[in-house]
Design goal:
Shape: elongated
Number of helices: 8
Largest sheet: 7 strands, mixed
Radius of gyration: 24 Å
Helix content: 10-25%
Oligomer: single chain
Number of strands: 16
Order of helices and strands: HEHEEEEEHEHEHEEHHEEEEEHE
Length: 398
């Protein structure tokens, strides 16, 4: 029944379907007593679920330009999907395993979020540092601490909202090439080291970004001469200052971005000499610029919350002993005894070791009977060795 609920979540048809994308999904089915048809059907359904999972990690981008300059960049990932015109394009048998590849048109469906079982659980979110692309811009106002203070303020807002578990990692920097972040490629073909960071912190999602611009509109307006001070005093000089930051939310299991947006603001930097001693200081907050930045940070925290609302709750399996399964999440995430989580095998293949791990629905679930603050355990109906459930596989609530 749990597997049927998952399938319906992917395939329900809603009004207002957006433009479709053609994707390929891979599914597996186990051949029992030579029953190829049942295994083929199971693999087909698993491939459809794989299509929907891929579509959740598919990026749709919208850029707004003014006078040839990008003023807004928005990237959103759909959390529910509809597959249609599906057809089998590949089938392979290996021992008692049937592998089926399905190609279909997948489109975003207008479904309401926050109504599934995952809505009552708190996903673990790690917030890392937001390095400055141009550190010299922070000299005016001594805002060189912005890279750590900005994510700390986003964390505070997320904690106050209370819908996610927040993990602090503001001293961690994910990108070496800030100019091209987050699309740089490392030597092992992974875009970032986000998977490693998420594993170390025990996070399902990683929030990070880059501060693109803290510059003043007219650097000459901030000179120290008598004329410069006079012009500032009578309002002749342009004292506006820019604030541009790219926000990215990564899935910690695959390393794929699930949300990205550029936030921008501009306001008067009217801090007197020595009045501001850092990003987010009292002197900073009293400026028109600081108030504008504060409003933008509210928008950023709200965007993170909304982006994660439609995502499933996922946690790693840390131990399998017979039919006893231990998970890396517990009561602080909202799990309770009696909760059931669907079990998925996580696998990578030699020809795509740097790619997104492939999840295979085992059609089994674990029922929790012991829940501790940071971990929990329960039992599944079969022995782990019989169904190849092991450490680092995934448990999911939709």
């Amino acid at each position: 029944m749990a597997a049927r609920r998952v399938l319906l979540a992917f395939l329900l048809v809603f009004a207002g379907i957006s433009q479709a994308a053609v994707l390929e999904g891979v599914g597996h089915g186990t051949i029992v007593n030579g029953d190829l048809e049942t295994a083929r059907a199971e693999a087909y359904q698993a491939a459809l679920r794989d299509l929907a999972l891929q579509y959740e990690a598919r990026v749709s981008t919208r850029d707004t330009m003014e006078n040839g300059v990008v003023t807004e960049s928005h990237m959103q990932v759909a959390a529910s999907a509809r597959a249609h015109n599906a057809r089998v394009v590949g089938e392979q048998r290996s021992g008692n395993l049937m592998r089926v590849t399905v190609r279909a048109e997948v489109s975003e469906a207008q479904a309401s979020c926050g109504t599934g079982e995952a809505a009552g659980l708190k996903k673990r979110v790690a917030v890392t540092g937001f390095p400055l692309l141009y550190p010299d811009q922070a000299r005016i106002g001594r805002l060189d601490d912005a890279g750590e203070m900005l994510p700390q303020q986003v964390q505070a807002r997320l904690r106050e909202d209370g819908s996610v578990q927040v993990l602090s990692a503001t001293s961690t920097r994910l990108f070496d090439d800030l100019l091209n972040a987050p699309t740089q490629q490392q030597g092992d073909n992974r875009l970032t080291n986000v998977v490693q960071v998420a594993r170390e912190l025990g996070a399902q999602f990683v929030v990070t970004g880059v501060i693109r611009d803290l510059g003043v509109a007219d650097p000459s307006a901030w000179g120290t001469s008598v004329l410069d001070r006079m012009q500032r005093g009578i309002g002749v000089a342009d004292q506006n200052r820019r604030f541009v930051v790219d926000l990215v939310v990564f899935d910690g299991f695959s390393g794929s971005p699930v949300y990205q947006q550029r936030f921008a603001a501009s306001a008067e930097w009217n801090a007197g000499p020595g009045a501001s001693d850092g990003f987010g200081s009292e002197g900073f907050k009293q400026t028109a610029y600081g108030q504008s930045v504060n409003s933008t940070l509210d928008e950023m925290a709200s965007a993170v919350t909304n982006a994660l609302a439609c995502q499933p709750f996922m946690t790693r399996i840390t131990r399998v002993d017979g039919n006893r399964v231990t998970l890396a999440s517990g009561a602080t995430a909202g799990l309770r005894p009696g909760d059931q989580l669907n079990l998925y095998r996580s696998a990578q293949y030699l020809d795509s070791l740097g790619g997104t791990p492939e999840l295979t629905d085992t059609r089994l679930s674990v029922t929790l009977n012991n829940v501790h603050p940071d971990f929990s355990n329960g039992r599944m109906p079969q022995i782990g060795g019989q169904v190849n459930i092991q450490r680092d596989d995934i448990a999911i609530i939709w």
